[in-house]
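ugh ok fine here u go
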Amino acid sequence: MSDHQLAADLATRAGELLLAVRAELADASAADRKAAGDRRSHEFLVAELAAARPGDTVLSEEGVDDPARPTAERVWIVDPLDGTREFGEPDREDWAVHVALWQAGELVAGAVALPAQQATLATPDVPAPAADAGPPRIVVSRTRPPAIARAVRDALGGVLVPMGSAGAKVAAVVQGRADVYVHAGGQYEWDSAAPVAVARAAGLSTSRIDGSPLRYNRAEPRLDDLVVCRPELAAAVLAVSGQGPV
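structure:
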């Protein structure tokens, strides 16, 4: 099984496990449901990667970081449950599972599973999104829409589309249901690694808000900001986002 296939398989199967957890704990509290989802998906992914790629290192949101990771040759960057808040709400579909592989300075494979949407987006073959004739749609947090997204909306004459997890937001751009995702104010590598790998495979523009490259497998895994958008909108978005949070 290739690295691309493994990423897609594990993201999909972790998503199936999460759907089972959701059903199993349907009558439990949202807190218990979220905690069980995070833990069980993490344990599944770590065990499966250890079996399939025993020589590789794993960086997981739910795991303890390995001090040797920054010097490892191959690192799987995973978010076992992206959008824990949305997962805890039974009717929401905007949560995801992220599985990405970093090797020799680059993201080389990635998959974003959207279990409640019965979809998995995975490298290497991701269709480019179809063009949309309407105003640019900028996906934002449904609870914490950043000021920078509002500035981009105003500059582009666009509209804001509230949505849950980072993976769901990038997936919406990949699927052609949105046009821009711009974020500033705090994330980690596991929040964006797999979505960025998938977005790049679809031909989308990906960068930090100042236009500089997104770098992964750094000693400090914080990656506070990013832009994912249609390539024809990149210059206009970066002209605003490059000013930083406003």
